[in-house]
Design brief:
Chain lengths: 114, 116
């Protein structure tokens, strides 16, 4: 079964600075990979996903993520953080089968300081 | 509807009582999922439906938990004889139901369950 690890529980970043959130997965083949964001009082929203092809994936809100097979990682990045990016971010992995189940990491909370 | 709707948004109950949590998925979405989010933890898969059937119930923590879906629409998650460890946010999501685990999930805002 697949699993996900997000090593950083909490990250604080200054507005305008760059952000990188780490995600490592465990799965025997190439999985589907996702990043979801949960803003305060709102439901989870998909930021981006990786299926195949180009390992650098662009998402909404200026986020991107890079799939690195050799490192079993799918780190999320943003070059310049805005105060509205303060939220909890979840990495998720899905198996390439008919299974619809996603496994989520424990999440990383991002605080943006002025 | 426009999005996934869950009710109630908050539920406080006493240990040993039964609770029902409701989820209205996006119209036309055949796949529906229940996840649990305990404080400080990631989302824990409970069950998913494809239409009215549940191919994967592997995440249900115990036989106190059950879920059903009728008319390929509304789903109800029932927890019997609630325990304090059941306290969590219960999230429902839906998707088109044609693409397996690669599909985009649309989440509701969740039901915050507190068992006293």
């Amino acid at each position: 079964a697949q699993s996900v690890t997000q090593p950083d529980i909490h990250i604080t970043v200054s507005e305008g600075a760059s952000l990188e959130l780490r995600c490592n997965y465990s799965y025997g083949a190439t999985p589907y990979l996702f990043w979801y964001v949960q803003s305060p009082g709102q439901g989870l929203q998909l930021l981006l996903k990786y299926f195949s092809g180009d390992t650098l994936v662009q998402g909404i809100k200026g986020f991107e993520a890079e799939f690195k097979r050799s490192q079993s990682s799918f780190n999320l990045r943003k070059p310049s953080v805005h105060w509205s990016d303060a939220a909890e971010y979840f990495c998720a992995v899905g198996a390439r089968s008919n299974d619809y189940k996603l496994s989520f990491g424990a999440g990383t909370t991002v605080t943006v300081r002025a | 509807g426009a999005g996934v709707s869950q009710s109630p948004s908050n539920k406080v109950t006493e240990k040993g009582k039964d609770v029902e949590l409701r989820c209205d998925p996006i119209s036309g979405h055949t796949a529906l999922y229940w996840y649990r989010q305990r404080l400080g933890q990631g989302l824990e898969f409970l069950i998913y439906f494809q239409g009215n059937s549940a191919p994967d119930k592997s995440g249900l923590p115990s036989d106190r938990f059950s879920a059903e879906r009728t008319g390929e629409s509304v789903s109800t998650l029932t927890i019997q004889r609630t325990q304090q460890e059941d306290s969590a946010v219960y999230l429902c999501a839906s998707s088109l139901g044609t693409g397996g685990a690669g599909e985009k999930l649309f989440f509701g805002s969740g039901t915050q369950l507190s068992v006293l």
